[in-house]
Amino acid sequence: MKEIKINITDLTLNYGTKTALHNVSLTIPTMKISALIGPSGCGKSTFLRTLNRMNDLIDNVKIKGEILIDDVNIYDKNIDVVELRKKVGMVFQKSNPFAKSIFENVAYGPRINGINNKKELSEIVENSLKKAAIWDEVKDRLKDSALSLSGGQQQRLCIARTLAVNPEIILMDEPASALDPLSTAKIEELMHELKEHYTIVIVTHNMQQAARTSDFTAFFYLGEIIEFGKTKMIFTNPEKKQTEDYITGRFG
Q: CB neighbours (10 Å) of residue 197?
């Protein structure tokens, strides 16, 4: 297994005339949690969305540079974006379950990928809910609406829905920012379990969360990467003064 899952070189992204990312170069290790921190508007979420080409959906976006996942340039014109997004799943800040049953939320991805066998779907749904640490809470309610679940449960359901199509990478954009402390702790615990099988990249405003959950941390400021390294080093002995000032609360 390769040590590096994602290799980003000289990534620059413009929204019209505004530069949101400037010459970002970064290597993201396989089956680790990499956290992206930095003040609001510094480019963290924009960067995250370049990894599964979600920015393609926005008008006037220009992207230069290279993003390799398993040595394949994901911006190559021959890339199937649907296949890419199966491989690189995304969990958003606000849980967004469909107005369908719990079962159908998780079965949705496999169904649109052509799996219709009831037994196979049931196995995928059960396995995905178990991996997302929510099976025991919902196994007797699979026909209930997903919207009847609590916020923390909805977010874990959305993680199960992401897992159901067998991704290799999971992107999380502030997945716990709308949750109470107990639900946040469950999501963090879940991330630790998931990194046994998936490469995880998380955007978080919560520095304690980055310190608790991630193996590596990247500090973004004004669309640039200021510093990237092992989380322990970034939080205890950063190389750059800007990183230290941000972590100690002197700015941002």
A: 14
In this structure, is residue 252 part of a structural domain?
no
Q: Is 42 helix (H, G, I), strand (E, B) or coil?
A: coil
Domain span including residue 18? 4-247
Residue-wise DSSP of 165-191: T--SEEEEESTTTTS-HHHHHHHHHHH
- The DSSP letter of residue 101 is B
For the chain, what percentages of helix, strand and coil (3-state, to nearest 5) are there?
40, 25, 35
Buried/exposed 160-178: b ≥16 CB within 10 Å, e otherwise:
bbbbbbbbbbbbbbbbbeb
> CA 157, CA 160: separation in Å to the nearest integer?
5
- Tell me the backbone φ, ψ of residue 149, rounded to 5 degrees: -80, 160
pLDDT in tens, the chain (252 residues): 789 999 999 999 999 999 999 999 999 999 999 999 999 999 999 999 999 999 988 999 999 999 999 999 999 999 999 999 999 999 998 889 999 999 999 999 999 999 999 999 999 999 999 999 999 999 999 999 999 999 999 999 999 999 999 999 999 999 998 888 999 999 999 999 999 999 999 999 999 999 999 999 999 999 999 999 999 999 999 999 999 999 998 875
> Per the domain annotation, does 60 fall within a domain?
yes
CATH code, 49: 3.40.50.300
Answer whether residue 13 is part of any domain: yes
Rounded to two decimals, the pTM is: 0.95
One-letter amino acid for residue 65 of the chain: G
